[in-house]
Specification:
InterPro entries: APOBEC/CMP_deaminase_Zn-bd (IPR016192), CMP_dCMP_dom (IPR002125), Cyt/Deoxycyt_deaminase (IPR050202), Cytidine_deaminase-like (IPR016193). With 138 residues, the protein is an alpha+beta fold. Helices cover 28% and strands 26% of the residues. Strands 1, 2, 3, 4, 5 and 6 form a 6-stranded mixed β-sheet that branches.
């Protein structure tokens, strides 16, 4: 993981460490845009599952809000963390909806995930998280 991406990991962990609450705020995400700016977000669990918002969506929304007008949102890297049992942070892959959202806005973004079989943190291109994804023309 590059120094820049390790910074995303640190920021996501720091955020989650400050706000974590079981069943309410269990995931934090940090994204870096092409200009080097970093934006973070935390998962918001609602009383009705449908009202919940993932940390990645919150971070992408914060990033989008930082760029006025028609300037495209260009995310270069995404790191999301969760606190697992024993209080250890773990890099997690985005859910299916967030995979769609990230790849819609920045298909070439690097998304850091933990592999299932090797339990290693590896980079994956956002669009590669959704094989055969249909793309809408914006």
């Amino acid at each position: 993981m590059s120094t820049e991406d390790a910074e995303l990991l640190t920021l996501a962990q720091e955020l989650l460490g400050r706000v974590w609450r079981e069943g309410r705020h269990e995931v934090a995400s940090a994204v870096r845009t092409a200009d080097g700016a970093v934006h973070t977000g935390v998962h918001l669990e609602g009383s009705c599952r449908r009202s919940s918002i993932c940390a990645e969506g919150v971070a992408l929304g914060a990033a989008r809000g930082a760029y006025p007008g028609g300037r495209p949102l260009e995310v270069t890297a995404v790191v999301s963390v969760q606190i697992k049992p024993a209080g250890r942070f773990r890099v997690i892959a985005p859910c299916g909806v967030c995979r769609e959202l990230i790849s819609d806005y920045s298909p070439d973004a690097t998304v850091w995930i933990t592999t299932v079989e090797e339990n290693e943190v590896v980079p994956v291109r956002a669009l590669d998280l959704l094989p055969d994804k249909s793309r809408r023309a914006w």
